[in-house]
Every structure is written in structure tokens, then in C-alpha cells.
Amino acid sequence: MRTAMKSLRLSEGFLFVETAGKNTAILYLYTMTISPAGKHDIPALTELLNSAYRGDVSRKGWTTEADLLDGDLRTDAANLDELMHKPGATFLKCSTPDGNINGCVYLQKQERELYLGMLSVSPLLQAAGIGKQLLAAAIEHAKANDCSSIFMTVISARTELIAWYQRQGYRLTGERKPFPTGNQRFGIPTRHLEFVIMERNLGSS
Fold first, then answer.
1. Is it the case that residue 112 has pLDDT exceeding 80?
2. How far apart are CA 12 and CA 110, in angstroms?
3. How far is CA 170 from CA 130, 149, 164, 173, in A?
């Protein structure tokens, strides 16, 4: 007789399948690889980014912006293609052996700083360590490209996300930037929004 699977959860790189009150740990995260993404990955990256930030699907994870911005799009294929072609830019992807992309991050070298954006993990796989692995890969990329620091913009209302980045070694610089509202195809703010700037100095890393 087959036992029905009750639930799935991820913790520290393991997928736990709960059946009949017992947990079975399956090695999951450590079979993934992080590598540069290419133009052929744009459709999968677009789907991942939109599912992580917008719409009802994003509410299954803790990084959703659905309560801050109306709309289902965080990005589209044209936007990602444009970002990929910027000088010093690259996307890193976290993939399973069969090619499924479950995480990504956008990086762009700007003089001796590295801009980090669009850090995304599939809503069903969040809190498993994928984001931390992508941040570690970003640090290696920064060092390989002679960058002395990494910086990012975070919506100020995302206090839980800011706290998470602080635990990963990033600090608030005190600088703020207005949230862009000119192009509403990637979301209409439901309240006043602004960015805070966060930075990690790599000198002592």
C-alpha cells in the first residue's frame, strides 16, 4: 500500500518529504550548479523572476512584492536581453542537473564596484540556501573582476529582506533613491516607494 505524501519543505539544502509523520531527507540543493546564463535562458529566467516577485504565485515565497506593486510582471524577455548586453553585465543561474533554473542573480561591474540585482529563487524552494549560494558566487565574481565592493538597491518597505541582507554582511549606506514610476509595465506601486542602498565591502572578506 502506498503512503500519501503529506508535505514538502526545504531546509539547509535538503528536501524533506513528510509521510505518515516521518521526515525523509533527500539531498537536493547540492546537486545544483551555478553558472553564467545565456540568451537561450531568457524564457526560463523571465518565468522565474516574475514568479518570485509578482502575482499570486510569488506569495508562496517570502520575497514577494505583490503587496507593494500591482501587476504580474517584474520583467520580460526584452528587458532581460537588454540587461545582458550592458557592458560588464552577466546573469548567474542556479540549475538542476536536468537544466531547470531555480535561482538567478544579475551582476554588472561599474568601475570597481559590482551592482547586484534581481536575486531570485523559485517560491517553492526559498529558505533552502539557494540565495546564499548565489550571493557567494557573486562575491567570487566580484573578486575575479577586481571589484572592491558589491552594492544593491532594495525597496525600503522590504524590512525583512533588508534584515536578511544585513545577516549576509551587507550594510545600509544611508543613501536613498526614488522608485521609478515612469514605466508601469513592470508594476504599479500601491503606495509611496523608495530604494535604500546596501553595500558589502570586500576588502576584509
1. yes
2. 33
3. 17, 10, 9, 9
For residue 136, give the 3-state DSSP assignment.
helix
Verify that 21 and 93 share a domain, yes or no: no
pLDDT 10s digits, 49-98: 988 876 555 555 556 666 676 666 788 999 999 999 999 999 999 998 88
* Domain span including residue 90: 32-201
Structural domains counted in the chain: 2
Whether the CB-CB separation of 157 and 179 falls below 8 Å is answered with no
Of the candidates 133, 152, 147, the one whose C-alpha atom is nearest the C-alpha of residue 203 is 147
Examine the domain organization and report whether 103 and 134 are in the same domain: yes
* Amino acid residing at 175: E
The verdict on 109 and 182 lying in the same domain is: yes
Q: Indicate if the pLDDT at residue 182 is higher than 70.
A: no
Mean pLDDT (the chain) is 81
Residues 72 and 102 in one domain: yes
